[in-house]
Design a protein that fits this description.
By secondary structure, the protein is of the alpha+beta class. It has 6 helices and 4 strands; from the N terminus they run αααβββαααβ. A 4-stranded antiparallel sheet has the order 1-2-3-4, with no helix packed on it. It starts with a helix and ends with a strand.
Length: 174
């Protein structure tokens, strides 16, 4: 059924498109797909022309980068309910990240991890609030946190350690 729907609304499948997209682009795209004109107050740009195109690769020459921002996921992730403001620019070649508060932990304070009774694997798997609360609970988080002093140390530092003020990553090397 989805393929039939795509065929009916005129989207050509079977291709790979390299255009950059952000979440705000979806609402104007849905409106335009429904035959409506997106309001001018919407900051996202409709993808409708890209979707209707039969081209692969870079379809819209303006969609070569995306601008990103992050503050927090969980309000009490850090003492004082402080955010972790980040801004980033992503292109085909690079990801540039500016961390405005590098002295803070990006994914939340390491509650209950400084000695004493630490959260159990079960609690880390089921409860976001027990530690590092800007990341939801789950088995991967539980494994990394529980094994941070051993085989998961590098993963722990990469995922939950403090970040430098400026990061420039060559995405071709990922």
């Amino acid at each position: 059924m989805p393929l039939r729907l795509i065929f009916l609304i005129g989207i050509n499948g079977g291709r790979i498109v390299d255009d950059f997209v952000t979440l705000p682009d979806l609402a104007p795209t849905f409106l335009e797909a429904g035959g409506l004109t997106p309001p001018t107050v919407m900051t996202g740009q409709s993808l409708w022309d890209v979707l209707k195109s039969d081209q692969s690769g870079q379809v819209d020459p303006e969609r070569t980068q995306v601008y990103l921002g992050r503050e927090r996921h969980y309000i009490t992730a850090r003492a004082g309910n402080l955010p972790y403001p980040q801004r980033a620019i992503r292109t085909k070649e690079f990801l540039f990240i500016l961390n405005f508060r590098p002295e803070r932990f990006p994914v939340g304070d390491h509650y209950q991890l400084n000695g004493g009774k630490e959260p159990s694997v079960r609690n880390l798997t089921k409860s976001t609030k027990v530690t590092i609360p800007d990341e939801d609970s789950g088995p991967t988080k539980a494994w990394i946190v529980s094994n941070r002093k051993g085989e998961a140390n590098d993963f722990f530092e990469h995922a939950y350690g403090k970040r430098p003020e400026v990061e420039l990553l060559d995405v071709k090397k990922w």
